[in-house]
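Can anyone check this?
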Amino acid sequence: MKYPKLRELLEAITALIRGPVTLKFPAAPSPAPEGFRGRPTYHNDDCVGCGACAQSCPARAITMTDDLAAGAPTRTLCVRYDHCIFCQTCERNCITTTGIVLETEYNMVAATRAAQNMSVAKELVVCEACGRVVAAREHLRWLYHKLGPLAYANPTVALASLRALRVIEPEADQPPCRAPGDVSRGDRMRVLCPVCRAAVAVII
């Protein structure tokens, strides 16, 4: 029985000399270890609104909502921390690699669930023939710079990007929305959804 007592006495003396080892959290934050998977955070300048994070999230903690009724069609990506399992799948599938990143912040205490959400909004590009969603404007611009000269093989990518850069202006007399695929030869040099683009390719 004397040996355990001597060990406890040694530990007590050691703690007295070195000081307490208890963490001071939450009074003082403790540094997170390397590789810690904390709060997923959108970086607005790097996120292009492609929705890859929402489509790949296994916990369905990220929602993607398209609002076409707004003055400017908008896509909103929202991550809910109360549903997130911090698996890093969103970061691994981000096409820009820095659009959404798991930070080292781990203190996410909040009084309401609404405070546990983070969202980012991006302007959408819609089909000029049928009005369906094509992609986020920043996504098409990212593709334009990524593809380089090859972007001109797809008029939708090239036109949407050049208009966003104010290199060319959109046509003033846009036709009314039609059914998907109801296009003509003259619609080739318009911003079209995949269905209308395929229909134009068949006509030509």
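Reply from J.R.: I decoded it. Residues 144 and 151 are 5 Å apart (CA to CA).
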